[in-house]
Amino acid sequence: MGLLARALLRGFWESDNRGSKALMEAKAVVENHEKLQLEAMTRTYRERRSVLVLMRQLNRLISAIQRHRGVSLAHLAGDGLFMEDVHQVQAQVAKRLLVLRSSVDDFEALVSTREQQNIQHGWNTVTHDWEGDALLENFEYHSFLIDQLLQLDVALGRRLEEPLQVAAGLLQQELYKEDDILPLVCRRMPEQIEQLARIRGLATHAAVVNECDGEHDKKLQYWLQCAERQNRELMQQIDTLEGNLKSNWRTLTELRNYELKLAFFLNTIKKDILHGDCRKADARQLFTLGSEIIEAYVEAVDGGITLLHVRLEDELESWLTQL
To answer: Alpha-carbon distance 107 to 95, whole Å?
Structure first.
C-alpha cells in the first residue's frame, strides 16, 4: 500500500475514533443526567411516602390523645368507671409515640429534634401526677399537646403541595393550585375533630358532676356554634366535590350518614348540659356517642390520606412511562 493510501486510512480511522469517542461522551452525559433525574425523583417519592405514613400515624395519635383527655376529665370528675379507659388509652398513646419515631427512615429529616422533644415533653406533662391536676389544668395540658401535633400535621402536608416532578426539580416551578384533598385532610377535618373532642370531654365531665358552671357553659356554647358552622361548611364542600373523587373517597361522603347523630349529640348537650343542671345527662352514653361520631371523621381523614397515596403512585407511574 502506498504512503498516500496509508495516510488516508489513518485519517479516516482517527476521525472515526474521535467521532466514536464524542458519541460515547455524549451518551455518558445523557446517562448521567438520567441517573440524576432518577435519583431526584426516587428521593422525593420516598420522602412523600414517609410523609403520608407519618400523617396517618398522627391522625390516630391525635385521636387517642383526645380520647385520653376525655376519659381523664371524667375520672377527675369522680367517675371511677372511666379509670380502666384511662389506663388503656395511656398505654396506647405511649406505643403510638414509639411507632411514630420508628415507622419511617430519616424521621429526623421530617420532624426536627426540637419538635420531637416538645412532643415527648408534652406527653410527659400530661401523664405526670395527672390525678392531682385541676380540671382546667388537665384540659389545657392535653390541648396544648394536640395543637402541637396538629401544627406538625399541617407542616407535613405542605410537603405534598407541589406536583411530584416539580418537587423533584424535574419541571419548572408552577403556581400551586389548592386541590380538594389536602386542605380537608390537613386542616378542616382535623379542626372539626378537635372541636367535637373538646365538646365531648367537657360535656362528659359536666355530666359526671351534674353541673356546668358559668365558665364551662360559655366555652361549650362557643364550641357548639363552631362545630355546627364547620359541619355545614364541610357538607357543602362534600357536595361540590368532583364526582370521581367523591366516589373514591367513601369515608368522607359517609359523614352524611352521621349528620342526624351529630345533630342529636349537639342538641343533647344544649338541652341536658348547658345552663347548670346536668342530672338528665348520662356521661357514659354521651361519651360513647361522641366517640362514634369522632371516629367517623378520623376514618374520613384516613381515607383522604389513602387517596393522596394513590395520587403519589399515579404521578410516579406517569413520569416513568412518559416519552
So the answer is: 17
